[in-house]
Amino acid sequence: MNRDTLRVRELLPPSADPAAECGGRELLPPRAARELAELRRRAVAPPTQPAFFSRRRILVGATAAGVSAALAVVGQRLVPQESETQPVAYTPPVLRLKPVEGESGSAFLLAFAERVEKLPQERAGGAYRYLKTWGWWLNTAGDLPGGPVSAAVPTVTESWIRRDASGRQRSAYGEPLYPDPGQRETAEKAGLLAGTGEEDRIYGPGQAPTVEGDEWGDVAPFSTDPRELARQMEEVSWDGGMLAHGVSDLISYAARSGPVSPRLRAAALRVLARSRQVDVATTTTWQGRRVIAVSQSETYQGSTQRESVFFDPATGYPSGFESALFGNARSLNITVPATLGVGETLDRGWVSSTTERP
């Protein structure tokens, strides 16, 4: 195993090792090896004045000088090469989205929804919804006297959540990464590290952290009629209005109460099918899973940002996301095209206690 491959493996907690799901730990799978080579080829020196964006929704061209912000760069690698005098930033290659063939994206999603609707109703194997995800999050503070400071921590998260939003969350943190190694001490003092080692917390009713937001409870229960469901969604503000993220959050919120009915999953997909703002494609994720990608894009001063949400083709459940940047990189310390944020569901299911896994 070469030194660069060893370095990549060191950055991941043991449970996040991609090779662990590919039959062994001795070598990276071919896809990972190819992407590692691409990461190294596309390294660039970071600019002196990075941009700042919101944590979940990264708006191209947005700035917030003097304001602390969190930048979701789940998957961004920030590893300086020994031969460089300046730190360099790596991001994984943007996923290749293959547009659906032979039919429109709307027709594809409608057919997908019809298949999902015919699935049998899942049975909860216990009171806790189990979810395992991985991601790398870069936190940035722009209000420090010496200028912007950033730090990233690769993280694998497991959660066991009950209907009343109580439960357990376990996070395994990798080695902290810094775009500028000289900012390490400042970043730590500024509280930018997501965590270190392993963190295991128990939450009482209503206290468990969630991604989708509690505002969905104001419009629940959700309709299985696509028109009425779309109206309900309009009452909730999600991630700057990106419809695919809204559908993902809605399904995730509904899953707090138990397995989401096939009819509701199908209705949510039909809401997407009715939109003229989304593109539909298929792709293979970083872990080698085949998914359906629903994307929206926006352009600002030469920068185009593509937001994609992945759906499991077998179940219709959300299974990850990618934020990708094309064109002008503006003041980000990455080459383009580049991934700004990536995330993937590794496992999901229902269990009877906070010590079980599916």
TrEMBL record:
Source superkingdom: Bacteria
InterPro entries with a match to the protein in the record: CU044_5270-like
Region described as Disordered: 198-218
The protein's name: CU044_5270 family protein
Biological source species: Streptomyces durbertensis
